[in-house]
Design a protein that fits this description.
The structure is a single chain. This protein has 35 helices and no strands. By secondary structure, the chain is mainly alpha-helical.
Amino acid sequence: SASSARCVRGGEPHLADSYSKSLRAGVLGPPTMDKKDEDEEYGEPRGGSMFRGVDKAHVIQEARAFNDPNVESSKCIQIMTKLLYLLGKGENFSSRESTESIFFPMTKLLLRDKDEKLRRLMYLVIKELKPDTDCVIIVTSTLTKDMNSTNDLYRANSIRVLCTITDTSMLMNIERYLKQAIVDKQPLVASAALVAGMKLMRTSPDVVKRWVNEVMQAVQDKNAQMVQYHALALLHAIKATDKLAVSKLVSTLTKQQMKSPLAMCLLIRYTVNVIQEGHGEQARAYYDFLESCLRHRSEMVIFEAARAICQMPNVTQRELTPAITVLQLFLSSPKPTLRFAAVRALNRVAMAFPLTVTTCNVDLENMISDSNRSIATLAITTLLKTGSESSVDRLMKQIGCFMSDIADEFKVIVVDAIRALCLKYPQKHRILMNFLSNVLREEGGFEFKRSIVDTILVLIGEIPDAVESGLGHLCEFIEDCEFTFLSTQILHLVGDKGPKTAAPGKYIRHIYNRIILENATVRAAAVSSLAKFGASVPSLRESMITLLRRCVHDADDEVRDRSTFYASVLSSGDDALIRKFVIDVTPMPLSGVEKALLEYKEQANFSEPFNFAKAVIAPIASPAKRKDQPKDTSMANLGGGA
Protein backbone atom coordinates (compact mmCIF):
# COMPACT_ATOMS: atom_id res chain seq x y z
CA SER A 1 0.00 0.00 0.00
CA ALA A 2 0.99 3.65 -0.29
CA SER A 3 1.26 4.05 3.48
CA SER A 4 3.61 1.09 3.80
CA ALA A 5 5.92 2.69 1.22
CA ARG A 6 6.46 5.79 3.24
CA CYS A 7 9.63 6.46 5.16
CA VAL A 8 9.72 6.58 8.94
CA ARG A 9 11.46 9.96 8.95
CA GLY A 10 10.99 13.29 7.17
CA GLY A 11 7.59 14.27 8.51
CA GLU A 12 5.88 11.19 7.06
CA PRO A 13 3.67 8.78 9.04
CA HIS A 14 5.27 6.15 11.26
CA LEU A 15 4.73 2.50 10.52
CA ALA A 16 2.64 2.26 13.67
CA ASP A 17 0.22 4.87 12.30
CA SER A 18 -0.50 2.91 9.12
CA TYR A 19 -0.69 -0.31 11.14
CA SER A 20 -3.15 1.28 13.57
CA LYS A 21 -5.37 2.55 10.74
CA SER A 22 -5.42 -0.87 9.10
CA LEU A 23 -6.15 -2.47 12.45
CA ARG A 24 -9.14 -0.20 13.06
CA ALA A 25 -10.41 -0.91 9.56
CA GLY A 26 -10.27 -4.65 10.24
CA VAL A 27 -7.68 -5.33 7.50
CA LEU A 28 -4.90 -6.80 9.63
CA GLY A 29 -6.95 -8.33 12.37
CA PRO A 30 -10.20 -8.25 14.29
CA PRO A 31 -11.30 -4.74 15.35
CA THR A 32 -11.88 -5.92 18.93
CA MET A 33 -8.22 -6.59 19.71
CA ASP A 34 -7.38 -6.41 23.41
CA LYS A 35 -5.22 -3.48 24.60
CA LYS A 36 -2.49 -5.80 25.91
CA ASP A 37 -2.40 -7.68 22.61
CA GLU A 38 -2.20 -4.39 20.76
CA ASP A 39 0.77 -3.30 22.92
CA GLU A 40 2.55 -6.52 22.06
CA GLU A 41 1.92 -5.95 18.36
CA TYR A 42 3.72 -2.61 18.69
CA GLY A 43 6.66 -4.36 20.31
CA GLU A 44 5.67 -3.26 23.80
CA PRO A 45 5.83 -6.07 26.37
CA ARG A 46 3.13 -6.80 28.90
CA GLY A 47 3.42 -4.71 32.02
CA GLY A 48 4.91 -1.48 30.64
CA SER A 49 6.88 0.34 27.98
CA MET A 50 9.81 -1.29 26.25
CA PHE A 51 11.80 1.90 26.93
CA ARG A 52 11.49 1.62 30.70
CA GLY A 53 14.96 1.33 32.22
CA VAL A 54 16.76 1.50 28.88
CA ASP A 55 20.37 2.68 29.20
CA LYS A 56 23.31 2.97 26.82
CA ALA A 57 25.44 0.15 28.28
CA HIS A 58 22.54 -2.31 28.14
CA VAL A 59 21.73 -1.47 24.50
CA ILE A 60 25.39 -1.74 23.42
CA GLN A 61 25.50 -5.17 25.07
CA GLU A 62 22.35 -6.22 23.21
CA ALA A 63 23.79 -4.93 19.91
CA ARG A 64 26.24 -7.86 19.91
CA ALA A 65 23.33 -9.92 18.64
CA PHE A 66 23.85 -8.28 15.23
CA ASN A 67 26.91 -10.53 14.77
CA ASP A 68 24.79 -13.66 15.11
CA PRO A 69 23.97 -14.96 11.59
CA ASN A 70 20.80 -16.65 12.90
CA VAL A 71 19.41 -13.69 14.85
CA GLU A 72 15.71 -12.98 14.36
CA SER A 73 14.66 -9.78 12.63
CA SER A 74 12.15 -8.94 15.37
CA LYS A 75 14.90 -8.91 17.99
CA CYS A 76 17.08 -6.64 15.83
CA ILE A 77 14.12 -4.31 15.33
CA GLN A 78 13.67 -3.97 19.10
CA ILE A 79 17.37 -3.26 19.64
CA MET A 80 17.44 -0.62 16.90
CA THR A 81 14.28 0.98 18.28
CA LYS A 82 16.00 1.35 21.65
CA LEU A 83 19.06 2.80 19.90
CA LEU A 84 16.92 5.41 18.16
CA TYR A 85 15.23 6.17 21.47
CA LEU A 86 18.59 6.88 23.14
CA LEU A 87 19.81 8.95 20.18
CA GLY A 88 16.58 10.92 20.20
CA LYS A 89 17.06 11.69 23.90
CA GLY A 90 20.48 13.14 23.09
CA GLU A 91 22.58 10.27 24.41
CA ASN A 92 26.17 10.57 23.19
CA PHE A 93 28.00 7.53 21.87
CA SER A 94 31.77 7.62 21.67
CA SER A 95 33.48 6.99 18.33
CA ARG A 96 34.47 3.49 19.42
CA GLU A 97 30.99 2.63 20.69
CA SER A 98 29.23 3.88 17.57
CA THR A 99 31.60 2.16 15.12
CA GLU A 100 32.85 -1.08 16.67
CA SER A 101 29.83 -1.94 18.83
CA ILE A 102 26.99 -0.74 16.59
CA PHE A 103 27.93 0.35 13.09
CA PHE A 104 30.13 -2.54 11.92
CA PRO A 105 27.83 -5.32 13.23
CA MET A 106 24.83 -3.54 11.72
CA THR A 107 26.43 -3.34 8.26
CA LYS A 108 26.51 -7.14 8.24
CA LEU A 109 22.74 -7.10 8.62
CA LEU A 110 22.51 -4.58 5.79
CA LEU A 111 24.26 -7.03 3.49
CA ARG A 112 22.39 -10.22 4.39
CA ASP A 113 18.93 -9.29 5.75
CA LYS A 114 16.14 -8.35 3.35
CA ASP A 115 13.42 -7.59 5.92
CA GLU A 116 11.84 -4.25 4.93
CA LYS A 117 11.11 -3.01 8.46
CA LEU A 118 14.58 -3.90 9.67
CA ARG A 119 16.20 -2.27 6.66
CA ARG A 120 14.28 0.97 7.19
CA LEU A 121 15.38 1.09 10.82
CA MET A 122 18.98 0.48 9.73
CA TYR A 123 18.74 3.49 7.42
CA LEU A 124 17.55 5.63 10.33
CA VAL A 125 20.26 4.45 12.73
CA ILE A 126 22.99 5.12 10.14
CA LYS A 127 21.63 8.65 9.62
CA GLU A 128 21.51 9.35 13.34
CA LEU A 129 24.93 7.89 14.14
CA LYS A 130 26.65 9.97 11.41
CA PRO A 131 29.67 7.67 11.07
CA ASP A 132 33.17 8.87 10.19
CA THR A 133 34.32 9.18 6.59
CA ASP A 134 36.35 5.98 6.84
CA CYS A 135 33.29 4.05 7.96
CA VAL A 136 31.02 5.56 5.33
CA ILE A 137 32.99 3.86 2.55
CA ILE A 138 31.89 0.49 3.95
CA VAL A 139 28.17 1.12 3.38
CA THR A 140 28.40 3.39 0.33
CA SER A 141 28.49 0.52 -2.14
CA THR A 142 25.49 -1.17 -0.51
CA LEU A 143 23.49 2.07 -0.40
CA THR A 144 24.44 2.84 -4.02
CA LYS A 145 23.16 -0.59 -4.98
CA ASP A 146 19.90 0.21 -3.15
CA MET A 147 19.61 3.42 -5.19
CA ASN A 148 19.32 1.23 -8.31
CA SER A 149 16.99 -1.27 -6.67
CA THR A 150 13.55 -2.10 -8.05
CA ASN A 151 12.10 -1.39 -4.61
CA ASP A 152 11.11 2.30 -4.54
CA LEU A 153 11.25 2.36 -0.74
CA TYR A 154 14.89 1.25 -0.75
CA ARG A 155 15.74 3.81 -3.42
CA ALA A 156 14.21 6.74 -1.55
CA ASN A 157 15.69 5.79 1.82
CA SER A 158 19.16 5.12 0.44
CA ILE A 159 19.17 8.59 -1.16
CA ARG A 160 18.28 10.19 2.16
CA VAL A 161 20.98 8.28 4.01
CA LEU A 162 23.73 8.81 1.45
CA CYS A 163 23.15 12.56 1.23
CA THR A 164 23.28 12.80 5.03
CA ILE A 165 26.50 10.87 5.62
CA THR A 166 28.42 11.63 2.41
CA ASP A 167 30.93 14.48 2.23
CA THR A 168 31.71 16.62 -0.83
CA SER A 169 34.54 14.42 -2.09
CA MET A 170 32.33 11.32 -2.21
CA LEU A 171 29.29 13.17 -3.52
CA MET A 172 30.73 13.21 -7.03
CA ASN A 173 30.39 9.42 -7.22
CA ILE A 174 26.63 9.47 -6.65
CA GLU A 175 25.74 12.75 -8.40
CA ARG A 176 24.63 10.92 -11.55
CA TYR A 177 22.19 8.78 -9.58
CA LEU A 178 20.76 11.83 -7.80
CA LYS A 179 20.11 13.61 -11.10
CA GLN A 180 18.25 10.57 -12.39
CA ALA A 181 16.24 10.35 -9.18
CA ILE A 182 15.06 13.96 -9.47
CA VAL A 183 13.24 13.21 -12.76
CA ASP A 184 12.11 9.75 -11.65
CA LYS A 185 8.47 8.89 -12.34
CA GLN A 186 8.00 7.64 -8.79
CA PRO A 187 7.12 10.68 -6.57
CA LEU A 188 8.60 9.05 -3.47
CA VAL A 189 12.03 8.82 -5.09
CA ALA A 190 11.91 12.25 -6.73
CA SER A 191 10.90 14.01 -3.51
CA ALA A 192 13.66 12.23 -1.59
CA ALA A 193 16.26 13.43 -4.09
CA LEU A 194 14.94 17.02 -4.06
CA VAL A 195 14.85 17.24 -0.26
CA ALA A 196 18.36 15.78 -0.19
CA GLY A 197 19.41 18.50 -2.62
CA MET A 198 18.10 21.20 -0.25
CA LYS A 199 20.20 19.73 2.56
CA LEU A 200 23.26 19.53 0.32
CA MET A 201 22.88 23.23 -0.55
CA ARG A 202 24.33 23.98 2.89
CA THR A 203 27.49 21.93 2.37
CA SER A 204 27.96 21.50 -1.40
CA PRO A 205 26.07 24.30 -3.20
CA ASP A 206 28.30 24.18 -6.29
CA VAL A 207 27.36 20.54 -6.93
CA VAL A 208 23.63 21.13 -6.50
CA LYS A 209 23.65 24.17 -8.82
CA ARG A 210 24.53 21.82 -11.68
CA TRP A 211 21.13 20.16 -11.30
CA VAL A 212 19.14 23.19 -12.53
CA ASN A 213 17.78 21.52 -15.67
CA GLU A 214 16.56 18.44 -13.82
CA VAL A 215 15.01 20.53 -11.05
CA MET A 216 13.27 22.78 -13.59
CA GLN A 217 11.87 19.68 -15.26
CA ALA A 218 10.51 18.53 -11.89
CA VAL A 219 8.86 21.95 -11.39
CA GLN A 220 6.98 21.45 -14.65
CA ASP A 221 5.75 18.02 -13.53
CA LYS A 222 2.02 18.33 -12.82
CA ASN A 223 1.45 14.69 -11.89
CA ALA A 224 3.02 14.78 -8.44
CA GLN A 225 2.13 17.74 -6.23
CA MET A 226 4.76 17.18 -3.54
CA VAL A 227 7.48 16.82 -6.19
CA GLN A 228 6.49 20.17 -7.67
CA TYR A 229 6.56 21.78 -4.22
CA HIS A 230 10.00 20.40 -3.33
CA ALA A 231 11.37 21.22 -6.77
CA LEU A 232 10.27 24.86 -6.54
CA ALA A 233 11.84 25.21 -3.10
CA LEU A 234 15.15 23.76 -4.34
CA LEU A 235 15.12 25.86 -7.52
CA HIS A 236 14.63 29.04 -5.50
CA ALA A 237 17.45 28.01 -3.14
CA ILE A 238 19.77 27.52 -6.14
CA LYS A 239 18.97 30.98 -7.56
CA ALA A 240 18.63 32.79 -4.21
CA THR A 241 21.95 34.63 -4.52
CA ASP A 242 20.98 36.12 -7.92
CA LYS A 243 18.06 38.52 -7.46
CA LEU A 244 17.60 38.97 -11.20
CA ALA A 245 17.36 35.20 -11.71
CA VAL A 246 14.80 34.95 -8.91
CA SER A 247 12.78 37.77 -10.49
CA LYS A 248 12.80 35.99 -13.87
CA LEU A 249 11.82 32.70 -12.23
CA VAL A 250 8.86 34.31 -10.44
CA SER A 251 7.84 36.19 -13.58
CA THR A 252 7.85 32.94 -15.59
CA LEU A 253 5.98 30.82 -13.06
CA THR A 254 3.29 33.42 -12.31
CA LYS A 255 2.20 33.11 -15.96
CA GLN A 256 1.69 29.37 -15.55
CA GLN A 257 -0.77 27.39 -13.47
CA MET A 258 0.92 25.20 -10.89
CA LYS A 259 -1.10 22.20 -9.76
CA SER A 260 0.31 21.86 -6.25
CA PRO A 261 -1.34 24.14 -3.66
CA LEU A 262 1.83 24.04 -1.55
CA ALA A 263 3.90 25.12 -4.55
CA MET A 264 1.42 27.95 -5.18
CA CYS A 265 1.84 29.14 -1.59
CA LEU A 266 5.62 29.13 -2.04
CA LEU A 267 5.32 31.04 -5.30
CA ILE A 268 3.10 33.66 -3.64
CA ARG A 269 5.71 34.20 -0.91
CA TYR A 270 8.50 34.49 -3.47
CA THR A 271 6.37 37.01 -5.39
CA VAL A 272 5.94 39.18 -2.30
CA ASN A 273 9.71 39.06 -1.70
CA VAL A 274 10.37 40.22 -5.26
CA ILE A 275 7.88 43.09 -4.85
CA GLN A 276 9.46 44.15 -1.56
CA GLU A 277 12.91 44.20 -3.18
CA GLY A 278 11.73 46.97 -5.47
CA HIS A 279 10.96 45.50 -8.88
CA GLY A 280 8.32 48.14 -9.53
CA GLU A 281 8.18 47.70 -13.30
CA GLN A 282 6.28 44.42 -12.90
CA ALA A 283 4.47 45.24 -9.66
CA ARG A 284 1.13 45.51 -11.45
CA ALA A 285 1.52 42.07 -13.05
CA TYR A 286 2.50 40.56 -9.72
CA TYR A 287 -0.52 42.12 -8.03
CA ASP A 288 -2.80 40.71 -10.75
CA PHE A 289 -1.31 37.27 -10.08
CA LEU A 290 -1.96 37.60 -6.34
CA GLU A 291 -5.51 38.75 -6.98
CA SER A 292 -6.13 35.80 -9.29
CA CYS A 293 -4.99 33.46 -6.52
CA LEU A 294 -7.89 34.75 -4.42
CA ARG A 295 -10.12 32.66 -6.71
CA HIS A 296 -8.08 29.47 -6.35
CA ARG A 297 -9.86 26.25 -5.38
CA SER A 298 -7.54 25.64 -2.40
CA GLU A 299 -8.26 27.52 0.84
CA MET A 300 -4.58 27.67 1.80
CA VAL A 301 -3.71 29.38 -1.49
CA ILE A 302 -6.57 31.84 -1.10
CA PHE A 303 -5.49 32.79 2.41
CA GLU A 304 -1.81 33.03 1.44
CA ALA A 305 -2.71 35.39 -1.42
CA ALA A 306 -4.91 37.54 0.83
CA ARG A 307 -2.20 37.75 3.47
CA ALA A 308 0.40 38.59 0.82
CA ILE A 309 -1.70 41.46 -0.54
CA CYS A 310 -2.10 42.84 2.99
CA GLN A 311 1.70 42.75 3.45
CA MET A 312 2.56 44.45 0.15
CA PRO A 313 4.49 47.72 0.52
CA ASN A 314 2.59 50.90 -0.38
CA VAL A 315 -0.62 48.96 -0.87
CA THR A 316 -3.68 51.15 -1.37
CA GLN A 317 -7.09 50.78 0.22
CA ARG A 318 -8.56 49.87 -3.16
CA GLU A 319 -6.05 47.06 -3.64
CA LEU A 320 -6.78 45.76 -0.15
CA THR A 321 -10.53 45.45 -0.68
CA PRO A 322 -10.53 42.03 -2.48
CA ALA A 323 -8.27 40.54 0.20
CA ILE A 324 -10.42 41.93 3.03
CA THR A 325 -13.52 40.48 1.37
CA VAL A 326 -11.94 37.01 1.25
CA LEU A 327 -10.77 37.22 4.86
CA GLN A 328 -14.27 38.28 5.91
CA LEU A 329 -15.67 35.10 4.33
CA PHE A 330 -13.15 33.03 6.28
CA LEU A 331 -14.42 34.58 9.54
CA SER A 332 -17.60 32.52 9.24
CA SER A 333 -15.78 29.29 8.32
CA PRO A 334 -16.53 26.19 10.43
CA LYS A 335 -12.78 25.46 10.58
CA PRO A 336 -11.08 27.08 13.61
CA THR A 337 -7.74 27.29 11.79
CA LEU A 338 -9.25 29.39 9.01
CA ARG A 339 -11.05 31.67 11.46
CA PHE A 340 -7.87 32.18 13.47
CA ALA A 341 -5.75 32.87 10.39
CA ALA A 342 -8.29 35.35 9.02
CA VAL A 343 -8.78 37.31 12.24
CA ARG A 344 -5.02 37.45 12.82
CA ALA A 345 -4.45 38.86 9.33
CA LEU A 346 -7.23 41.43 9.86
CA ASN A 347 -5.72 42.38 13.21
CA ARG A 348 -2.49 43.33 11.48
CA VAL A 349 -4.24 45.21 8.70
CA ALA A 350 -6.22 47.16 11.31
CA MET A 351 -3.02 48.80 12.53
CA ALA A 352 -2.53 50.64 9.23
CA PHE A 353 -6.02 50.59 7.66
CA PRO A 354 -8.61 50.55 10.46
CA LEU A 355 -11.36 52.00 8.27
CA THR A 356 -10.96 49.22 5.69
CA VAL A 357 -11.50 46.54 8.33
CA THR A 358 -14.64 48.19 9.75
CA THR A 359 -16.69 46.30 7.16
CA CYS A 360 -15.88 43.13 9.12
CA ASN A 361 -16.97 44.48 12.52
CA VAL A 362 -20.28 42.61 12.59
CA ASP A 363 -18.54 39.28 11.97
CA LEU A 364 -15.83 40.15 14.49
CA GLU A 365 -18.43 40.89 17.18
CA ASN A 366 -19.95 37.46 16.62
CA MET A 367 -16.53 35.91 17.20
CA ILE A 368 -16.23 37.35 20.71
CA SER A 369 -18.17 34.34 21.96
CA ASP A 370 -16.02 31.88 19.98
CA SER A 371 -15.08 28.77 21.97
CA ASN A 372 -11.45 29.25 20.91
CA ARG A 373 -10.12 31.93 23.25
CA SER A 374 -7.27 32.87 20.91
CA ILE A 375 -9.77 33.70 18.18
CA ALA A 376 -11.98 35.62 20.59
CA THR A 377 -9.02 37.65 21.91
CA LEU A 378 -7.89 38.60 18.42
CA ALA A 379 -11.46 39.57 17.52
CA ILE A 380 -11.66 41.84 20.59
CA THR A 381 -8.33 43.55 19.90
CA THR A 382 -9.23 44.04 16.24
CA LEU A 383 -12.55 45.63 17.22
CA LEU A 384 -10.76 47.94 19.65
CA LYS A 385 -8.50 49.09 16.80
CA THR A 386 -11.30 49.61 14.31
CA GLY A 387 -14.09 50.74 16.63
CA SER A 388 -15.46 54.26 16.47
CA GLU A 389 -15.91 56.60 19.42
CA SER A 390 -19.63 55.84 19.54
CA SER A 391 -19.01 52.09 19.84
CA VAL A 392 -16.67 52.26 22.86
CA ASP A 393 -19.45 51.84 25.46
CA ARG A 394 -20.86 48.77 23.75
CA LEU A 395 -17.43 47.22 23.32
CA MET A 396 -16.57 47.69 26.99
CA LYS A 397 -19.75 45.85 28.02
CA GLN A 398 -18.89 42.94 25.75
CA ILE A 399 -15.30 42.78 26.95
CA GLY A 400 -16.39 42.88 30.59
CA CYS A 401 -18.09 39.49 30.26
CA PHE A 402 -15.23 38.16 28.18
CA MET A 403 -12.25 39.00 30.42
CA SER A 404 -13.06 36.54 33.20
CA ASP A 405 -12.92 33.57 30.79
CA ILE A 406 -9.44 34.07 29.33
CA ALA A 407 -5.89 33.53 30.57
CA ASP A 408 -3.61 36.34 31.74
CA GLU A 409 -1.55 36.32 28.55
CA PHE A 410 -4.67 37.14 26.54
CA LYS A 411 -5.76 39.76 29.07
CA VAL A 412 -2.46 41.58 28.57
CA ILE A 413 -3.18 41.78 24.83
CA VAL A 414 -6.64 43.22 25.47
CA VAL A 415 -5.23 45.80 27.93
CA ASP A 416 -2.66 46.95 25.36
CA ALA A 417 -5.45 47.38 22.81
CA ILE A 418 -7.51 49.40 25.32
CA ARG A 419 -4.51 51.67 25.90
CA ALA A 420 -4.28 52.41 22.16
CA LEU A 421 -8.04 53.02 21.98
CA CYS A 422 -7.95 55.46 24.92
CA LEU A 423 -5.10 57.44 23.38
CA LYS A 424 -7.09 57.51 20.13
CA TYR A 425 -10.27 58.78 21.83
CA PRO A 426 -9.18 60.75 24.95
CA GLN A 427 -12.76 61.86 25.61
CA LYS A 428 -13.63 58.26 26.56
CA HIS A 429 -10.90 57.99 29.19
CA ARG A 430 -13.37 57.80 32.11
CA ILE A 431 -15.14 54.73 30.74
CA LEU A 432 -11.90 53.00 29.86
CA MET A 433 -10.25 53.98 33.15
CA ASN A 434 -13.18 52.59 35.14
CA PHE A 435 -12.99 49.37 33.16
CA LEU A 436 -9.25 49.03 33.85
CA SER A 437 -9.86 49.76 37.54
CA ASN A 438 -12.48 47.01 37.80
CA VAL A 439 -10.21 44.53 36.03
CA LEU A 440 -7.31 45.55 38.28
CA ARG A 441 -9.20 44.41 41.36
CA GLU A 442 -9.81 40.94 39.91
CA GLU A 443 -7.53 37.94 40.31
CA GLY A 444 -4.44 37.92 38.10
CA GLY A 445 -0.70 37.46 37.89
CA PHE A 446 2.08 40.01 38.02
CA GLU A 447 2.43 40.59 34.27
CA PHE A 448 -1.29 41.21 33.90
CA LYS A 449 -1.40 43.63 36.83
CA ARG A 450 1.71 45.42 35.62
CA SER A 451 0.25 45.89 32.14
CA ILE A 452 -2.82 47.59 33.65
CA VAL A 453 -0.73 49.80 35.96
CA ASP A 454 1.55 50.77 33.07
CA THR A 455 -1.49 51.58 30.94
CA ILE A 456 -2.94 53.85 33.64
CA LEU A 457 0.46 55.54 34.05
CA VAL A 458 0.62 56.22 30.31
CA LEU A 459 -2.93 57.62 30.29
CA ILE A 460 -2.10 59.87 33.26
CA GLY A 461 0.95 61.17 31.43
CA GLU A 462 -0.82 61.72 28.08
CA ILE A 463 -4.31 62.87 29.17
CA PRO A 464 -4.33 65.71 31.76
CA ASP A 465 -8.00 65.14 32.64
CA ALA A 466 -7.24 61.55 33.60
CA VAL A 467 -4.74 62.39 36.37
CA GLU A 468 -7.08 62.55 39.38
CA SER A 469 -9.24 59.58 38.42
CA GLY A 470 -6.14 57.54 37.58
CA LEU A 471 -4.47 58.35 40.91
CA GLY A 472 -7.67 57.46 42.75
CA HIS A 473 -7.86 54.06 41.07
CA LEU A 474 -4.19 53.34 41.76
CA CYS A 475 -4.52 54.34 45.43
CA GLU A 476 -7.43 51.93 45.82
CA PHE A 477 -5.36 49.21 44.16
CA ILE A 478 -2.36 49.50 46.53
CA GLU A 479 -4.67 48.99 49.50
CA ASP A 480 -4.76 45.31 48.51
CA CYS A 481 -1.69 44.90 46.28
CA GLU A 482 0.51 41.85 46.77
CA PHE A 483 3.30 42.99 44.42
CA THR A 484 6.01 45.15 46.00
CA PHE A 485 7.27 46.43 42.65
CA LEU A 486 3.85 47.80 41.66
CA SER A 487 3.25 49.35 45.09
CA THR A 488 6.54 51.26 45.05
CA GLN A 489 5.97 52.35 41.45
CA ILE A 490 2.52 53.72 42.30
CA LEU A 491 3.74 55.46 45.48
CA HIS A 492 6.46 57.18 43.48
CA LEU A 493 3.88 58.40 40.95
CA VAL A 494 1.46 59.58 43.67
CA GLY A 495 4.30 61.53 45.29
CA ASP A 496 5.03 63.28 41.97
CA LYS A 497 1.48 63.92 40.71
CA GLY A 498 -0.59 64.03 43.91
CA PRO A 499 0.65 67.40 45.29
CA LYS A 500 -0.33 69.08 42.00
CA THR A 501 -3.98 68.02 42.16
CA ALA A 502 -6.87 70.12 43.51
CA ALA A 503 -7.18 68.12 46.75
CA PRO A 504 -3.78 66.58 47.58
CA GLY A 505 -4.78 65.72 51.16
CA LYS A 506 -7.04 62.85 50.10
CA TYR A 507 -4.05 60.72 49.12
CA ILE A 508 -2.28 60.93 52.50
CA ARG A 509 -4.43 58.23 54.10
CA HIS A 510 -3.55 55.70 51.36
CA ILE A 511 0.16 56.49 51.64
CA TYR A 512 0.33 56.30 55.44
CA ASN A 513 -1.56 53.00 55.45
CA ARG A 514 1.36 51.55 53.54
CA ILE A 515 3.73 52.56 56.36
CA ILE A 516 1.56 50.70 58.85
CA LEU A 517 0.72 47.59 56.84
CA GLU A 518 3.43 46.88 54.25
CA ASN A 519 6.97 45.51 54.09
CA ALA A 520 10.14 47.58 54.45
CA THR A 521 10.57 48.35 50.73
CA VAL A 522 7.05 49.73 50.39
CA ARG A 523 7.35 51.62 53.71
CA ALA A 524 10.50 53.37 52.48
CA ALA A 525 8.73 54.39 49.25
CA ALA A 526 5.76 55.68 51.28
CA VAL A 527 8.09 57.82 53.45
CA SER A 528 9.58 59.43 50.33
CA SER A 529 6.10 60.06 48.96
CA LEU A 530 4.97 61.77 52.21
CA ALA A 531 8.07 63.97 52.10
CA LYS A 532 7.16 65.13 48.59
CA PHE A 533 3.69 66.15 49.77
CA GLY A 534 5.21 68.07 52.68
CA ALA A 535 7.70 69.84 50.40
CA SER A 536 5.22 70.73 47.63
CA VAL A 537 2.14 71.63 49.74
CA PRO A 538 3.02 74.11 52.53
CA SER A 539 -0.37 73.67 54.19
CA LEU A 540 0.36 69.97 54.76
CA ARG A 541 3.98 70.36 55.83
CA GLU A 542 3.46 70.24 59.61
CA SER A 543 1.23 67.18 59.33
CA MET A 544 3.81 65.44 57.15
CA ILE A 545 6.59 66.21 59.65
CA THR A 546 4.48 64.64 62.40
CA LEU A 547 3.86 61.50 60.33
CA LEU A 548 7.53 61.23 59.37
CA ARG A 549 8.64 61.48 63.02
CA ARG A 550 6.43 58.54 63.85
CA CYS A 551 8.61 56.44 61.54
CA VAL A 552 12.00 57.20 63.10
CA HIS A 553 11.73 54.10 65.29
CA ASP A 554 10.87 51.74 62.43
CA ALA A 555 12.43 48.28 62.46
CA ASP A 556 14.10 48.83 59.07
CA ASP A 557 17.17 51.07 58.89
CA GLU A 558 16.28 52.44 55.43
CA VAL A 559 12.88 53.61 56.64
CA ARG A 560 14.43 55.15 59.79
CA ASP A 561 17.11 56.97 57.78
CA ARG A 562 14.66 58.36 55.25
CA SER A 563 12.13 59.53 57.82
CA THR A 564 14.83 61.17 59.96
CA PHE A 565 16.42 62.88 56.97
CA TYR A 566 13.16 64.15 55.43
CA ALA A 567 11.77 65.30 58.79
CA SER A 568 14.94 67.33 59.45
CA VAL A 569 14.91 68.89 55.96
CA LEU A 570 11.23 69.84 56.14
CA SER A 571 11.62 71.22 59.71
CA SER A 572 14.42 73.54 58.56
CA GLY A 573 11.94 75.81 56.76
CA ASP A 574 14.58 76.55 54.09
CA ASP A 575 12.69 76.38 50.77
CA ALA A 576 15.91 76.15 48.72
CA LEU A 577 17.14 73.24 50.84
CA ILE A 578 13.77 71.50 50.65
CA ARG A 579 13.61 71.89 46.89
CA LYS A 580 17.14 70.61 46.45
CA PHE A 581 16.84 67.46 48.58
CA VAL A 582 13.15 66.54 48.22
CA ILE A 583 11.58 67.96 45.07
CA ASP A 584 14.35 68.35 42.50
CA VAL A 585 16.24 65.17 43.37
CA THR A 586 17.60 63.56 40.23
CA PRO A 587 18.46 59.88 40.63
CA MET A 588 22.07 58.94 40.00
CA PRO A 589 22.50 55.72 38.01
CA LEU A 590 25.05 53.26 39.34
CA SER A 591 26.82 53.19 35.98
CA GLY A 592 27.68 56.86 36.36
CA VAL A 593 28.92 56.41 39.93
CA GLU A 594 31.01 53.42 38.84
CA LYS A 595 32.61 55.42 36.02
CA ALA A 596 33.49 58.30 38.36
CA LEU A 597 34.94 55.93 40.96
CA LEU A 598 37.12 54.20 38.36
CA GLU A 599 38.46 57.54 37.17
CA TYR A 600 39.18 58.55 40.78
CA LYS A 601 41.02 55.27 41.36
CA GLU A 602 43.08 55.59 38.16
CA GLN A 603 44.20 59.11 39.07
CA ALA A 604 45.48 57.76 42.44
CA ASN A 605 45.23 61.23 43.95
CA PHE A 606 43.60 60.38 47.26
CA SER A 607 44.52 63.68 48.90
CA GLU A 608 41.28 65.10 47.45
CA PRO A 609 37.87 63.63 48.37
CA PHE A 610 35.76 61.80 45.78
CA ASN A 611 33.56 64.21 43.80
CA PHE A 612 30.08 62.87 43.07
CA ALA A 613 29.52 65.67 40.58
CA LYS A 614 31.47 63.66 38.03
CA ALA A 615 28.83 60.94 38.04
CA VAL A 616 26.54 60.90 35.01
CA ILE A 617 23.08 62.22 35.94
CA ALA A 618 20.05 60.75 34.18
CA PRO A 619 16.31 60.59 34.99
CA ILE A 620 14.53 57.31 35.66
CA ALA A 621 12.94 55.84 32.51
CA SER A 622 9.16 56.07 32.36
CA PRO A 623 7.30 52.73 32.60
CA ALA A 624 5.68 53.54 29.26
CA LYS A 625 9.09 53.52 27.61
CA ARG A 626 10.36 50.19 28.87
CA LYS A 627 12.64 48.68 26.26
CA ASP A 628 11.53 45.16 27.03
CA GLN A 629 7.88 45.98 26.27
CA PRO A 630 6.95 45.22 22.64
CA LYS A 631 5.12 47.90 20.72
CA ASP A 632 2.35 45.54 19.77
CA THR A 633 1.94 42.25 21.56
CA SER A 634 -1.32 41.28 19.91
CA MET A 635 0.51 39.03 17.43
CA ALA A 636 3.58 38.08 19.43
CA ASN A 637 1.53 36.20 22.03
CA LEU A 638 -0.70 34.44 19.57
CA GLY A 639 1.58 32.48 17.29
CA GLY A 640 3.58 35.27 15.69
CA GLY A 641 3.55 35.99 11.98
CA ALA A 642 3.22 33.29 9.47
